[in-house]
Write a structure and sequence with these properties.
Elements (H helix, E strand, L loop, with lengths): L4 H10 L4 H15 L10 H4 L7 H20 L5 H25 L11 H24 L4 H5 L1 H21 L3 H19 L5 H6 L2 H32 L8 H30 L1
Helix pairs in contact: 1-2, 4-6, 5-6, 5-9, 8-9, 11-12
Length: 276
């Protein structure tokens, strides 16, 4: 967050705001973001104000505050199987409703995507799945189809990731698109939780586990690098340069940002490992 403060202030100044306004507005946003409550406002200009990917931590922090209360009530659900089918439908309806609010209310634009009011339902559904998974693991009688379905389910998730935008253009239904998201995510979590199939064995390999340790650092670091690269390098240092094509410049930009992200992530991970 602090690494992005100079860029936020500079951007405000370049948009014609005064120095006092720019510093004051940035300070107010820091006060909102530091305790990780920025995603509660349902506005991108707050939830994505510094490190844009940190909306995720804000949303999780808020949800974690109510998670014990949620779990205490979910344990009391008697008709769990019916809820497992009914909650995804409700989630899709709720998503469509929040999307409508985002579209019609001028100051809201992040209720349907990053807000805790939407994401909490994913946590609720995960808790319900966890009850089923725990019960199956306790029985220690895992069906063979669970083991053999890891690879097909993972392949479906990858295919959906690649073709999701095309699907949503052919079938422009927020409800249907979100339903497929939820079903595939739930299926992948379910089959991987037993750690018996091909994909689980692949993820247990040392190199994959090492990459998993770096994942959060990569997630956090790449965004500030990208945000500084465009205004500082592309629009200032290389503005108007004709000796390099935009296509090559784009590829070089991606390569430099990815390389810098990986180097910084490895260094940060090593420092964290040594401190423990």
């Amino acid at each position: 967050m602090l690494a992005m403060v100079p860029l936020v202030i500079a951007s405000s100044l370049l948009h014609g705001k005064g120095i006092l306004y720019s510093v004051g507005a940035t300070a107010a946003k820091v006060m909102i973001s530091a305790p990780l409550i920025q995603s509660a406002f349902g506005m991108v200009k707050l939830s994505h104000v510094f490190n844009g990917v940190c909306w995720f931590f804000s949303t999780l922090a808020i949800i974690y505050l109510v998670s014990p209360w949620l779990m205490a009530h979910l344990i009391r659900i008697r008709h769990l199987k019916a809820a497992l089918f009914g909650v995804p439908v409700f989630m899709c309806v709720w998503y469509v409703f929040l999307s409508g609010v985002d579209a019609k209310v001028s100051f809201f634009d992040d209720l349907a995507y990053g807000s805790p009011y939407m994401r909490v339902w994913f946590v609720i559904y995960g808790m319900m799945l966890a009850r089923v998974i725990y019960t199956w693991r306790e029985k220690r009688d895992i069906p063979l189809w669970v083991r053999s379905s890891e690879l097909p389910v993972a392949a479906l998730c990858i295919a959906w990731f690649v073709g999701r935008n095309s699907f949503s253009q052919i079938f422009p239904s927020l409800f249907l698109t979100r339903l497929v998201d939820i079903v595939l995510c739930a299926a992948l979590l379910f089959v991987l939780s037993f750690e018996k199939g091909t994909v689980s064995r692949l993820l247990e390999k040392p190199k994959m586990m090492a990459l998993g340790h770096l994942a959060m650092y990569i997630y956090l670091i790449h965004y500030p690098l990208r945000m500084y690269w465009e205004p500082v390098v592309l629009k200032r240092l290389l503005a108007g340069q004709t000796w390099i094509s935009q296509e090559i410049l784009g590829l070089l930009s991606v390569a430099i940002i990815v390389t810098a992200t990986m180097l910084l992530s490895v260094a940060w991970n090593r420092k964290a490992t040594k401190s423990h």
